Amino acid sequence: MSGQQLTRIGLVALVAYMLHPVLPAVSQPQQFASNFRSTTESALDRNANIEQLKEAPDLPQLPSYSGKLKFLRGYTQPTGKGWTVYHIKYLTQEDPAKVKGWYENALAMYQWKILNSAGQTITANHKDGHMCTLIFNPSTKPGYRTHLGMFFSQAPQSTQPQE
């Protein structure tokens, strides 16, 4: 055999090895289509409850920035396990480091445990179970210095302590 033939055989063997987990699904097209359909439908169900926010929400136990924030956009989505997830974008005229410093201090005063404060992010958990990640990026929008991304997960009522 020539070197070229050995290379072809090696490539065919490699492709067959890589496709091995896929071959049973392809050889049973009805089962593959059924699995694909149910996965796609459940993904659509998860996205069906997304609600576009028209204004900035008041989030439980999360301090409101004392500077001026401009609400850009956001959405909320309940999960199947009782959580409510928020994704919100803001602009502010203050420097990213100043806005981040303000949130570090305010979160501590509101009984949040800061898990990570490296670089341009803060990730924290609240004693009531809420979780939050804040991302402070320089803004490219004229007149604004910070683009703030906020990811907030509101804990289900059942996990919050009763007062």
Strand arrangement within the widest β-sheet reads 1-2-3-7-6-5-4
Structural class: alpha+beta
Characterize the largest beta sheet: strand count, sense, and whether it forms a barrel. Answer: 7 strands, antiparallel
Q: What is the radius of gyration computed over CA atoms, rounded to a whole number of angstroms?
A: 24 Å
General form: globular
The helix/strand series, from N terminus to C terminus, equals: HHHEEEHEEEE
In short:
34% of the residues lie in helices and 30% in strands.
Written account of the structure:
The protein has 163 residues and is an alpha+beta fold. The protein has 2 domains: 46 residues; 108 residues, TBP-like (2-Layer Sandwich), CATH 3.30.2030. The protein is 34% helix and 30% strand. It is built from 4 helices and 7 strands, in the order αααβββαββββ. Strands 1-2-3-7-6-5-4 form a 7-stranded antiparallel β-sheet, covered by helices on one side. A hairpin with a 5-residue loop joins β2 and β3. The relative contact order is 0.13. The N terminus and C terminus are likely disordered.
Write the topology of this structure.
Blueprint: H1 3-19, H2 23-27, H3 29-48, E1 51-52, E2 69-78, E3 84-92, H4 96-109, E4 112-116, E5 121-126, E6 131-138, E7 146-154
Antiparallel strand pairs: 1-2, 2-3, 3-7, 4-5, 5-6, 6-7
For this entry, give a set of tags.
TBP-like; alpha+beta; about 160 residues; single chain; 4 helices; disordered C terminus
